[in-house]
């Protein structure tokens, strides 16, 4: 989309939100003067939702990588229009710091842990800790 159509989406969405807000204000003033409780009319609610969706669409379509101006007055843009390239060394850096391997999901099978053995070891440890506290 061109820049003007993005601005148009922002403008229309903002106008719809402002109009629904003003209509809601008028409605609440009207109901306050009659001392009756009424729910907000559906058209005002829908107008606010549609305005928000239009602004959201405008915001999503405006996401692009920035273009840079070089010293020679040439516009330089990245290879990809929307996403920046990811270097693998940066992508796996956290995994390397944590000590995870590429196949750690296959090497560490949580489903095959012997829960009864681990619970028994914990129970033995807890009994040992209690007996040490009693002797002190």
TrEMBL record:
<protein>
    <submittedName>
        <fullName>Uncharacterized protein</fullName>
    </submittedName>
</protein>
<dbReference type="InterPro" id="IPR018937">
    <property type="entry name" value="MMgT"/>
</dbReference>
<dbReference type="InterPro" id="IPR053279">
    <property type="entry name" value="EMC_subunit"/>
</dbReference>
<keyword id="KW-1133">Transmembrane helix</keyword>
<keyword id="KW-0812">Transmembrane</keyword>
<dbReference type="Pfam" id="PF10270">
    <property type="entry name" value="MMgT"/>
</dbReference>
<comment type="similarity">
    <text>Belongs to the membrane magnesium transporter (TC 1.A.67) family.</text>
</comment>
<keyword id="KW-0472">Membrane</keyword>
